Amino acid sequence: MKILGDVTCQAALFVYKDDGSENAAWNSVCGTYQQEGPVRGELHNKKPAFLDGLRTWNEGVKPTNSYLAIYAHMGKSGLGCVRNDPAREVTWQELANALPNGVAILWLIGCNSQECKTAWAPLVGPVLSHLLVTTATKYWQPFLTCFNMAISLDPIVLHADIPSEVKRSSPKLGQNTEYYRVDAQKRGFTQVP
């Protein structure tokens, strides 16, 4: 486990990996911390510590102005630090439960994270405002640096501009992402084109 930044930082990057790619991911987290300033970073390979870290962070920030990116293996049933290890898998419901106050902006970076929408239907799980998901099996670690645009104050990127900025800054990976806003009337997600 590695931790960077204060637990009260409104933006956080959590890495749940134990497959040999965790050091490169952690370097990306450290780069975001150096470039953007106060960001909470956590690297975990044990399910209980990962879930505890998320809950502690979520309970220490203002949820309506919180930004969270999670990098892990992802798929239909949830996320994990390695592929096909049910003992270390975090279900989508367990992830939602670990964020009891919700999170304004949630980026789920890992193969086929769009599966969370089905698991959280008909509601929106822990998402209060916007959700970025991935739609393909790719090596997603380089995409971690795109989270900087969501939390940067110089320049500020509007929510409506995130999809085009993601595709511009990371053309190969960005084309395999989808961005949604929470639609209160529909009580579900509406894709941001």
What is this structure, in a nutshell?
This protein has 193 residues and is α/β, with parallel strands linked by helices. It has helices spanning 22-36, 47-59, 92-97, 115-120, 147-151, 162-169, 171-174; strands spanning 2-4, 11-16, 40-44, 67-74, 78-80, 90-91, 103-109, 127-134, 177-183, 188-191. The protein has a single domain, classed as Rossmann fold, CATH 3.40.50.
Description:
With 193 residues, the protein is α/β, with parallel strands linked by helices. It has one domain (2-191): Rossmann fold, CATH 3.40.50. The chain has 7 helices and 10 strands. α1 links the parallel β2 and β3 (40-44). The longest helix has 15 residues, at 22-36. The radius of gyration is 15 Å and the shape is globular. The termini are far apart.
Shape type: globular
Rg (CA only) = 15 Å
In whole angstroms, how far apart are the ends? 37 Å
Q: Would you tell me the overall average pLDDT?
A: 94
The CATH topology corresponds to Rossmann fold
